[in-house]
Design brief:
Blueprint (H helix, E strand, L loop, with lengths): L1 H30 L30 E2 L1 E8 L20 E2 L9 E19 L5 E2 L7 E2 L1 E12 L6 E2 L2 E5 L7 E2 L4 E3 L7 E22 L10 E2 L1 E7 L9
Antiparallel strand pairs: 1-14, 2-4, 3-13, 4-12, 4-14, 5-6, 7-8, 7-11, 7-12, 9-12, 10-11
The structure holds calcium ion (CA).
């Protein structure tokens, strides 16, 4: 029985892994910057021109975000932090800022320690309705400036060093020198690239967000997805 469970469990993880990685591949194509081909699920078996046998290259296994874990400094009802890591673009996390100056954060966890060099961020996709607004259908909670910190244990944190933003057509998606990053105020999916780090936790700190025509909501931050892209480092196993 245990064997069967293990098998099913592994299959479940692999299935999720493919789904998340496919999403990242699609984004990379949109960004037209990088061919993110390392997750190809099929081994490269094309014959090369010389016909010689290609030596097997060990490819690190992708590591998945823990879809059962996500924490936020605050969340609106029906918009929990785990909605940012559920691989469903239509569900989202929404902060519920108290206005007391507390930083708005979203923390996600990988299933194991991994090498991470990018995060895919998508704001809430649906517009919100507010009858009191002159523009009752509007976007709110668009992250426009943030910082990402990483941790091995969920206690000690260091900021990552952003290198490039992909998928931001506004020209405002930039990596800043002070290790923060800026995004255009739109609801597109962006990929925040940074220098690779070894981590199990990533924490987004929202520094600025945007809501059109509704200053009262400008402190709100949303994430339909905030998903690290990572691989397990190949490590030499010491022989005991
Ligand atoms: Ca979601």
């Amino acid at each position: 029985m245990k064997k069967l469970f293990d098998k099913q469990n592994k299959y479940g993880i692999r299935k999720l892994s493919i789904g998340v990685c496919s999403a990242v591949i699609g984004l990379s194509l949109l960004g037209a910057q990088t061919a993110y081909a390392t997750e190809a699920s099929e081994p490269s078996s094309q014959p090369n021109s010389a016909g010689a046998a290609t030596p097997a290259v060990e490819t690190p296994e992708p590591v998945m975000v823990d879809s059962a874990y996500a924490e936020a400094s605050s969340s609106k009802e029906n918009a929990p932090a785990t909605n940012a890591v559920d691989a469903d673009i239509n569900t989202y996390w929404e902060s519920a800022p108290t206005g007391d100056g507390e930083a708005t954060t979203l923390t996600v966890k990988m299933s194991e320690v991994a090498t991470v060099d990018k995060v895919t961020y998508t704001p809430r996709q649906v517009t919100t309705q507010d009858p009191s607004s002159p523009n009752p259908k509007h976007h709110a909670g668009l992250l426009t400036k943030g910082q990402i910190d990483y941790s091995l244990n969920g206690t000690d944190w260091e900021p990552v060093a952003p290198t490039r933003i992909d998928g931001d057509s506004t020209g405002r998606g930039v990596a800043n020198e002070d290790k923060t990053f800026s995004l255009g105020a739109n609801n597109n999916t962006r990929v925040i690239n940074f220098q690779p780090v070894k981590a199990q936790y990533l924490r987004l700190t929202a520094l600025e967000s945007w809501a059109n025509n509704l200053p009262a909501r400008s402190g709100v931050v949303t994430a339909a997805q905030f998903i690290p892209s990572c691989v397990k480092p190949i490590e030499e196993t010491p022989q005991v």
